[in-house]
């Protein structure tokens, strides 16, 4: 089961090592939120999140070195952000449930929400007529035929940055406009097409015979937008803290995304699904991997003991849009066996690989979808970091050989 959202007064006080009187004082000062519980007696209950945050603050004062070390490994939150909240097994952008956004909003609207706080700014940030790809950039893209879309992004973006002096304006509104230009350019290059609408552009280039694919692609992009501080987003924020331009921020995110423990996990899922497809026996493939001590990619997530809502949501939308798909049936059989054998749920990597198989996306398409969606989040974090004006510069604790003259 996931962590409880509320604690009783007794448990909250015990967690903090304080008296009930002190707990009530914390509540009156706004340090811990409380509300009336339902049912008989209507005793008050206290937000677990606030209790844990206060406990961590106390721990930082007692043992700052230990807390900082833990923060770098799935530990204490180390940066403030108003973009994403993960709570009670749910995922929210700016307080909006990601599943609702993925079903009801375009990626442009979600980008506007992340960057400006107002989805209605989407038409301003993404006008119907945006500047097309320059001849110089087209020549660069044409010279690297055979690379995956993400690899092409990494080659092309430095060239695009050199052509965009407005990107050096780091005010929030200017960065949002630069982010829109970057995202538009990356989408056009990935698809080899350019029509109105980012998801529609991907559909035209990747699934030209299936107009309905645009809706599923849009949902996949939204599910990938942000997820607190994974390694790519932390790298992006570090670069933004140096006040490098947004193109460099996105390049930093892409560099980290390519690692096998991040975006590269999607490629492992794709290889796993190909193995299952060839064997025509999900249980046998999973059992064989387990006997050999091999990990099953695409399942489980440390932040979601009861299942990744992005994986569940995107798989549900895919099955609803393509109920007769062989790829959907294959993924469903794998997910069913994993639940029975290991009690594990599919995560967003598994869902993206399923979308790619269902829509027959080009090689690297699933990772490109992830990168395009996450670019929205990287730009959002850059805006926050630029606004803070602070440089991210942690210290290292030296554990090497001491100077010989001491």
- Termini gap: 53 Å
Strand content: under 5%
Overall helicity: 55-70%
Which series of helices and strands comes N to C?
A: EHHEEHHEEEHHHHHHHHHHHHHHHH
| Biggest sheet record | 3 strands, antiparallel
Please report the total strand number as a whole number: 6
Structural class: mainly alpha
Tell me, briefly, the overall form: globular
Rg is 23 Å
Number of helices: 20
Strand order of the largest sheet: 1-3-2
Question: Roughly what is the average pLDDT, rounded to an integer?
Answer: 91
User: Which blocks of ≥5 consecutive residues have pLDDT under 50?
Assistant: none
A few lines on this structure:
This protein has 406 residues and is mainly α. Helices cover 59% and strands 5% of the residues. It is built from 20 helices and 6 strands.
């Amino acid at each position: 089961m996931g962590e409880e959202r509320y604690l009783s007064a007794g448990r909250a006080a015990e967690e903090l090592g304080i008296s009930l009187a002190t707990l009530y004082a914390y509540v009156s000062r706004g340090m811990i939120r409380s509300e009336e519980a339902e049912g008989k007696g209507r005793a008050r209950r206290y937000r677990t999140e606030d209790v844990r945050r206060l406990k961590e603050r106390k721990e930082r004062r007692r043992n700052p070195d230990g807390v900082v070390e833990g923060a770098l490994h799935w530990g204490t939150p180390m940066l403030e952000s108003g973009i994403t909240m993960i709570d009670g097994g749910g995922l929210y952008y700016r307080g909006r449930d990601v599943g609702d956004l993925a079903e009801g909003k375009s990626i442009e609207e979600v980008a506007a929400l992340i960057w400006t706080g107002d989805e209605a700014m989407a038409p301003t940030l993404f006008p119907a007529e945006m500047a097309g790809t320059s001849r110089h950039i087209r020549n660069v893209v044409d010279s690297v035929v055979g690379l995956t879309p993400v690899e092409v992004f990494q080659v092309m973006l430095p060239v695009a940055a050199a052509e965009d002096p407005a990107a050096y304006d780091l005010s929030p509104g200017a960065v949002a406009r630069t982010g829109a230009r970057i995202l538009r350019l990356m989408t056009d290059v990935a698809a080899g097409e350019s029509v109105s609408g980012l998801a529609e552009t991907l559909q035209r280039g990747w699934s030209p015979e299936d107009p309905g694919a645009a809706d599923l692609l849009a949902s996949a992009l939204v599910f990938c937008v942000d997820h607190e501080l994974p390694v790519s987003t932390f790298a992006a924020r570090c670069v933004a803290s140096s006040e490098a331009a947004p193109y460099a921020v996105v390049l930093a995110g892409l560099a980290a995304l390519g690692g096998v423990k991040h975006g590269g996990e999607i490629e492992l899922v794709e290889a796993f699904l190909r193995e299952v497809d060839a064997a025509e026996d999900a249980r046998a493939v999973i059992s064989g991997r387990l006997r050999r001590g091999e990990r099953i990619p695409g399942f489980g997530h440390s932040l979601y003991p009861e299942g990744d809502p992005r994986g569940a949501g995107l798989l549900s939308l895919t099955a609803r849009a393509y109920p007769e798909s062989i790829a959907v049936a294959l993924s469903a059989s794998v997910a069913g066996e994993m639940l029975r054998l290991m009690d594990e749920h599919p995560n967003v990597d598994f869902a993206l690989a399923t979308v790619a198989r269902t829509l027959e996306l080009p090689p690297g398409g699933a990772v490109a979808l992830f990168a395009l969606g996450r670019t929205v989040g990287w730009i959002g974090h850059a805006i926050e970091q630029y606004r803070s004006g602070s440089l991210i510069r942690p210290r290292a604790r030296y554990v090497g050989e001491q100077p010989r003259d001491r």
